Amino acid sequence: MKVLRIFLVAVGVWYLCNLLLLWPPVYGGALPLIYPGIVLGQGTPSFGLLLDAWLIVGLQLAAIGLVALWGARDPLRYRALVPVIVLTELVGSAWDIYSIVWSGEALWVGLTTLAAHAVIVAGAWFAVSAVERETAGSVKA
């Protein structure tokens, strides 16, 4: 259960950090680096709408992060969060691939975020494998 607890805490903290990173004043300043050469329309209502939409993404991640932190107190009871986290990461990966290929996202940004998604998915696999080993061991004993 220790590995699952560590995974839930790590993801919970990371998802809360994403809320801060997607906060409009922070993310608004980063967007020109993420999408170089794209006219983003800073200062227009459309740009404000874009920032608001990303804030909602941050709030959704933070909600999952808070539940993950809460669940770390009793990881076995909250292990159903793992597929939610994996699916969240797979959707994020699909968005990153789309952004790199069709939306002008800087390659280094897309590859960095894809690597982060991969680390979280690998961590999920590792945590679930550890729980299965522990559970199998306790059943045999």
UniProtKB/TrEMBL annotation:
Keyword hit for Transmembrane: yes
Sequence intervals crossing the membrane: 7-27, 47-69, 81-101, 107-128
Keywords tagged on the record: Membrane, Transmembrane, Transmembrane helix
Claim: Lyase is one of the keywords in the record: no
Protein name as it appears in the record: BphX family protein
Organism: Novosphingobium indicum
The organism's taxonomic lineage, starting at the top: Bacteria, Pseudomonadati, Pseudomonadota, Alphaproteobacteria, Sphingomonadales
